[in-house]
Specification:
This protein has about 280 residues and is α/β, with parallel strands linked by helices. It has two domains: about 110 residues, NIF3 (NGG1p interacting factor 3)-like (Udp-n-acetylmuramoylalanyl-d-glutamate--2,6- Diaminopimelate Ligase, Chain: A, domain 1, 3-Layer(aba) Sandwich), CATH 3.40.1390; about 110 residues, Udp-n-acetylmuramoylalanyl-d-glutamate--2,6- Diaminopimelate Ligase, Chain: A, domain 1 (3-Layer(aba) Sandwich). Helix content is about 35%, strand content about 20%. The strands form three sheets. The chain has a five-stranded mixed sheet. Strands 7-9-10-11-8 form a five-stranded mixed sheet. The chain has a two-stranded antiparallel ribbon with strand order 5-6. Helix 2 links the parallel strand 2 and strand 3. The longest helix is centred in the C-terminal third of the chain and has 15 residues. The protein is globular and about 60 Å long. The structure holds fe (ii) ion (FE2) (2 copies). The site of one fe (ii) ion has 5 residues, from loops.
Amino acid sequence: MKVYEVIEKIKEWHQPYIEQEKTRDIYLCGDPQTECRGVAVTCACTLEVMHKAVEKGINLIISHEGITYNYEKKYQRDEFKNETLLEKLNYAKEHDLVVWRDHDHMHGTFLREENRRLRHDMIFYGTMKELGWEEYLTGDELKPLLFKVPEMSAREFGQQLIKAWNLNGLRIVGDLDGRVSTVYIVEHVIAGKFDDYDLGKIDMAEDIDAFIPLEIVDYTLTSYVRDAAYLGKNKIIYEMGHFNAEELGMKYLARVLPEVLGMDVEFIQSGDTFNYLIRE
Ligand SMILES: [Fe+2]
Ligand SMILES: [Fe+2]
């Protein structure tokens, strides 16, 4: 099967989906006409992920995030002089690697005017499935972000997250000696032009014990949790970072794709972005 035929099958699996003109889901490198010799799924296609794929004889990587170091959808090779990036792209070229981004399809189509989703947000649906939290879901099933888990200590819950996500650790804000039951996967909390969106999260935060954000800035939810925890409320943020947080969704994709494609699919963990130096 050619690479583009594999991608067409994946797009078909994502239906119903409305294709956007400015889609992020493009070929980030490589030739779609290449014969597919194996498929890997990852959250963030680092150079290390490329190496691991090549070692396994794989030449197609499905990545949720981009491969260049900016937000641009398409890297203009002639305009960019970064040696590391050139090395990465040259490596991909030398090994016939194709990287296709599955970002917008994974998050699915949300019809803003109708306030309605066409299908699941597969990143968060997949995260729920990988965690085995279906029975704890209290929010929207199409975009599962809110859960009520069996009550436990904040420390124990944190350790469970570390194991489930296979992390080196977690950055903690709030009360690690408290209890956890209501959990909110709070997506990005990045303020600025999203200030109103973040305020909406703070409005509902009194009813939540534990927050698992993607990226988060200090001056909104983080500040709220510090004050609330100081007042003795069960409030804690478990910060693992953006690319870690979305990884279980891609792990789920790797789990379902073999049946969709009729071939083996390898999940390559991008690996924890972070390491922790603890004060001695
Ligand atoms: Fe992301
Ligand atoms: Fe995402």
